[in-house]
Every structure is written in C-alpha cells, then in structure tokens.
Amino acid sequence: MVATARWATRRAADLIRSSTADVALTRTWKPASGHGQELKDAVFQLDLLKGKRILVTGGGTGLGRSMSHRFLELGANVVICGRREDVLEQTAEELTKETGAEIETVRCDVRLPDAVEAMMDRIWQKRPLDILVNNAAGQILAPTHKMSSRAIDAVLGIVLHGSAYCTVAAGRRWIDAGERNKVVMSILTVSALLGAPFTVPSAMAKAGVLAMTKSLAVEWGPRGIRTCAIVPGLFPTEGAWSRLMPKERGGDEELVKTIPLRRVGEHIELANLAAFLVSDGAAYINGDAVVIDGGKMQSGGGGASTQSMLDWTDEQWEAIRPKKK
Ligand code: NAP
Q1: pLDDT tens per residue across span 272-312
Q2: Model confidence over 132-150: pLDDT tens digits?
Q3: Strands lying side by side in the sheet with 225-232
Q4: Domains in the chain with CATH codes
C-alpha cells in the first residue's frame, strides 16, 4: 500500500468493520452465498498445478494470498513476495497450516530493478519458475489535479514498472535457458479497459500492463511463453477497501446495486479462474484478459440511464405503460 492518507485508512477500516453480511471480507475461502465451498472442491483435479513453481507478487495479502492458497491446494510450489517481511512470514505460516504445503517468501520491493533481479536469482537457485503472477499493486483515490508527482510515481512504480521488471527478469531467464511452457499472468483492473476517474495513475499503469500482455503474447509466444490477465471487479480485501471505499462512496449496499449479480466476488471465484489460466488446461489462451466482475462492466454503456429501473416494481412498470386513448 502506498501513500494512503491515514484518514482514508481509518474510515475504510470502520466501513469494513460495519459492513453487512452481504459483503463479507473474504481473506480466505468463505462461501458467503452458499456455493463457494462446492466450487472450491468441484472445479479442478487436485493435482492440476502439480510440479509448477509459481511466484505471486504481493502474495502476502488479499487476492494474492487467496490465489496462493488455491495454487498450493492444487499442488503448486509457491513463492510470495512483498515489502513487509512480517506479513509474508505470517501468511506463509497460515497457508502452510491451511493447506499442509510449504511456501517460500522473499522480501522484495518490485519498484527496484536490482531487488527484482536479486529475488529472481534467489528463486532460480532452487528451481526455475514456471509461472509469474504480477499481482502487487498500490492505489490512491484522489482528484488527479491534486496528486503529487510522488504519489503518481509510487503507483506507476509498483504496477507498471514492477510488473515490467518482474516479467522481463523471468522471461529473460526462460529465453536464455530455452525453457518453454511458461506463463506470465497479470492482475489488472476494469480501469485498464475503460479508464477511471480519481484513480488515474492506476488506470494508466494497468493499461500499460495490458499492453505488455498483448505485446508479449506475440513476441514471446514462439518461445513457448504465454501471457494472460485477469480483470477483477469488486472483491473485498482490506487493502482495496481501505484505499478505495471511503464511506462517502455510499456504503456497501449502494456498491452492490451497481453489480448486475447483486453481490461482490468471492475470492475463490477469482482464485479458480487464476488457477485455470496458469494451468496447462489453458495452454492456448495467449494475450487475452478475462473479466470477472459479475457483469458490472456491461452496466456502464447503453444501460447507464436505465440503472435505477432495474429495481422497479411491477406497479412502476404499469404506471409507464402506454394508455389507450
Ligand atoms: P492488497 O491486499 O493491498 O494487495 C497488494 C499487495 O501488493 C500487498 O500484499 C502488498 O504488500 C504488495 N505490494 C505493494 N507494493 C509493493 C511493492 N512495491 N513491492 C512488492 N509488493 C508490493 O490488495 P488486493 O485487493 O488484494 O489487490 C490485489 C490485486 O488485485 C492488485 O493488482 C489490484 O489492483 C487487483 N484488483 C483488486 C480488486 C479488488 O476488488 N480487491 C479489484 C480490481 C483489481 P506490501 O505492502 O507488504 O509490499
């Protein structure tokens, strides 16, 4: 998390504490609407990712933690990185307890190219990676004309530069060694596709990562390296909610109304998509970004002016029916 104003963090923490049952914070699997657990058990063979070595940047918290959890359950060998060693250690301990699998941690600030190279050397010493997940991110909610250059650089540094440094560091090692069947998957945001007011540096950075995903699909495809991305909608995490959901945005009930499926995403839903995309089952998916947002992105364009009508009663519809003259 970068440059987050303290007041925003406090208010958002209040929001999380007071959030209603519908929008449960799902740090780990939580079948909030009754189907999560079955999904978790049913979707894949339990050795789907056996033998795969995966680095999840920002894997100590939120969605990175949830993806790491799922990868471990499916037999992968997982490494997580982030800047806070205590967070990484605690997560590793919890994930080992929850899944019975060992997990490695590396402290690394992905904004620093030398640190990224050192992390990759350390990982490679043990065994080369098969999959890189660019998940680490920072975010600031503010009017763009009031953002300092430091704040802009911080977001671009983590998301745009960090993803590029990690991707190139892994890709170069794979290409130099002639290794094939490798994957780079990046976690984007809807703003990468549509833009977004008040989170402009993030939208710019994620759009850049999307351009990298599409470009490298072509450049590295012949080398046996494929690229893909996930575009998540709203998945409650402490990080995202503390930065982006001050109560002035209208609270959780208002938020859920903007999603056609009328609920936020469950972490397992995103983790299952991630597991599929990095697996050999998705071997022909290259250069694409998959949206998982309960249909929220579709409710912008042509449907914008009809949003409030979604909850109309029969009586309201009856009232506007053309009357016989
Ligand atoms: P999060 O819990 O705050 O995760 C961000 C992670 O990135 C943290 O573990 C953080 O660890 C790490 N990180 C930040 N700066 C770093 C740096 N310089 N070097 C290395 N690691 C760094 O937030 P999240 O909600 O799970 O978000 C995960 C991903 O999903 C992000 O890419 C986000 O843009 C995307 N996403 C989330 C949502 C959502 O609703 N949650 C929606 C759309 C997209 P340290 O602070 O210890 O470094």
Answers
A1: 999 999 999 999 999 999 999 999 999 865 555 677 777 78
A2: 999 999 999 999 999 999 9
A3: 103-107, 77-82, 53-57, 131-134, 182-187, 225-232, 288-292
A4: 6-320 (3.40.50.720)
Helix/strand/coil for 291: strand
Residues 216 and 225 sit within 8 Å (Cβ to Cβ):
yes
Structure tokens at 222: 């012949």
Q: Which of 4, 28, 63, 67 to mutate to test the pocket of ligand 1 (most atoms within 8 A of CB)?
A: 63
Distances in whole angstroms, Cα of residue 163 to Cα of each of 143, 259, 306, 318: 25, 29, 38, 53
pLDDT (mean) for 8-34: 35
Q: Which residues form ligand 1's pocket by a CB distance below 6 Å? A: 1, 57-58, 60-64, 81-84, 87, 108-111, 135-138, 158, 162, 187, 189, 232, 234-235, 237, 239-240
Q: Is the pTM of this model over 0.85?
A: yes
What gap in Å lies between CA 261 and CA 109, rounded to an integer?
37
CA distance linking residue 68 with residue 124, whole number of Å: 19
Q: Measured in angstroms, how far is the CA atom of residue 195 from the centroid of ligand 1? A: 19
Q: Tell me, in angstroms, the distance from the centre of ligand 1 to residue 159's CA.
A: 9
